[in-house]
Amino acid sequence: MELFGSRFHFLCFVSLFLLISAVFPVSSIGINYGQIANNLPTPENVIPLVKSIGATKVKLYDADPKVLKAFANTGVEFIIGLGNEYLSGMKDPAKARDWVKTNVQAYLPATKITCIFVGNEVLTFNDTSLSGCLLPAMEGVHTALVSLGLDKQVTVTTAHSLAILETSYPPSAGAFRKDLVNCITPILNFHAKTGSPFLINAYPYFAYKDSPKQVPLDFVLFQPNQGIVDPASNLHYDNMLFAQIDAVYSALASLGYKKLFIHISETGWPSKGDENEAGATPENAKKYNGNLIKLITSKKGTPMRPNCDLNIYVFALFNENMKPGPTSERNYGLFKPDGSPAYSIGFSTTTATGNSTVALPSPPAAPESSSSPSSSTGYLSISSATMERYSSNGIVGTLILVLLILINLVVVVVV
Ligand SMILES: *[C@@H]1O[C@H](CO)[C@@H](O)[C@H](O)[C@H]1NC(C)=O
Ligand SMILES: *[C@@H]1O[C@H](CO)[C@@H](O)[C@H](O)[C@H]1NC(C)=O
C-alpha cells in the first residue's frame, strides 16, 4: 500500500512537473559524468540515473566509446572532452581530422554530440608550453569540423578554472589574471568568431572551505539570506555562484567581449571531506545541489544577465573512488557507484531501477510569473524530447502523457 501511495505521489509530482515545464519552458540540467573510478555501473545502467535527475545534457571528460554508443537515440546532448595530453598534436590538421572522425563523426547523429571542450583548466596549470598549445588545438579541431561539414552542429571550446580571475569581488570588478590576458584574448576572439560558449568551473565550496568564518554558509548554499549589494552596479546578490558568474561577465566585458555566452561547466558540493575541509557534509551537499537544480529549472538568470538561461553542469554524477587528493575529491557525486543516491536531493521518493534505487528530482520551484513568457503555452509546447522520455516508460508513461495533454487542454481553454 505504501508503495502504491508513493507511486501515486510520484505520478502527481511528475504531472505537475511536466505541466510546469510544458507551460513555462525550463532551462535544462547538465551533469558531469566523470569516470575516475573502478566500480561504476555500465553506461546502459547510467541512462536511467541521468534521466532521474532531469538532466538532458551530459559532459564527458573524454570521448568514451562505450558511453557514446550507449546513449545513442536517448536525446541526451553531449559535450565531450579532448584531454590535455592530446593538445600538442591537434595543430596537425590530419591528426585533428582523425580525432574528430573517430570521436565525433562516428557517433553522429544518433548520439547528440554538440560541443567539444579542448583541454581542461589548461591556463591555471601555469605551464606556458601547454597554454601555448591551447588555441592552436581549438582551431585545429574547429577546422577539422568545418572540413567535415560538422561545424554548424558541433562547437569548440575549452573549460577554465575560476582561478583565471584575479578579482572576483565585487562582481562588477571581475578581471582576469593580468599574466593571462595575452593568452585569453585571442581565445575570446575565437569564441566570438565561431559562436561557441565560454566555459567556467566555479565552486563556491572552495571559497567557503578556505574561510568558513567569513563566508556565510547560507550565501553559498542558496539558502535565504540578506545577500550583498555590489557597490558599483547596485545589483543585489543572494548567492555566491551568481556573484562568481557575473564576475566572469565583467572580466569578459573589460576586454571588450560583452556578447559571449557563459556556461558553468562544473559546479557542485562534496558530501564528505577531511577534517580540514569545512562544510563537506551530506546536508550541505543536498542543500547546494538541490537548490541549484531548482534554480536552474526556474529559468532565472544572474543579476547582470537576468534574461540569459543558466547553462549549468552539476559536478558530478558519481563519487569517483580513484581520484587523487583530499577526501572531498572522491565525494562530489549525486550517486554512489551502486546507483543509489549519495544523499537525498530533497525529494524522498525512490523508484527501482534494476537492482538499485535512484533519487527523484526535487520539485522545481514555480517560476515567477514576472519572468515567464505570457503565452505560447498549451499542449503544443510539450517537446518531442518530453514525449520520448515519458512515452518510453510503457503504460505509466502513456497514462502520464494522456493526463498531461488533458491538463494542458484545460489550461489552454482557461487561458
Ligand atoms: C599559477 O600562478 C598564479 C599566479 O602567479 C598563482 O597564484 C597560482 O597559485 C599558480 N598555480 C599553480 C598551480 O601553480
Ligand atoms: C541484481 O542482483 C543480482 C544478485 O544480487 C545479480 O545476480 C544481478 O546480476 C543484478 N542485476 C543487475 C541488473 O545488476
TrEMBL record:
<feature type="transmembrane region" description="Helical">
    <location>
        <begin position="394"/>
        <end position="414"/>
    </location>
</feature>
<keyword id="KW-0732">Signal</keyword>
<feature type="compositionally biased region" description="Low complexity">
    <location>
        <begin position="367"/>
        <end position="378"/>
    </location>
</feature>
<keyword id="KW-0812">Transmembrane</keyword>
<keyword id="KW-0378">Hydrolase</keyword>
<dbReference type="InterPro" id="IPR000490">
    <property type="entry name" value="Glyco_hydro_17"/>
</dbReference>
<dbReference type="InterPro" id="IPR044965">
    <property type="entry name" value="Glyco_hydro_17_plant"/>
</dbReference>
<dbReference type="Pfam" id="PF00332">
    <property type="entry name" value="Glyco_hydro_17"/>
</dbReference>
<keyword id="KW-0472">Membrane</keyword>
<dbReference type="InterPro" id="IPR017853">
    <property type="entry name" value="GH"/>
</dbReference>
<feature type="region of interest" description="Disordered">
    <location>
        <begin position="356"/>
        <end position="378"/>
    </location>
</feature>
<comment type="similarity">
    <text>Belongs to the glycosyl hydrolase 17 family.</text>
</comment>
<keyword id="KW-1133">Transmembrane helix</keyword>
<protein>
    <recommendedName>
        <fullName>glucan endo-1,3-beta-D-glucosidase</fullName>
        <ecNumber>3.2.1.39</ecNumber>
    </recommendedName>
</protein>
<keyword id="KW-0326">Glycosidase</keyword>
<feature type="signal peptide">
    <location>
        <begin position="1"/>
        <end position="28"/>
    </location>
</feature>
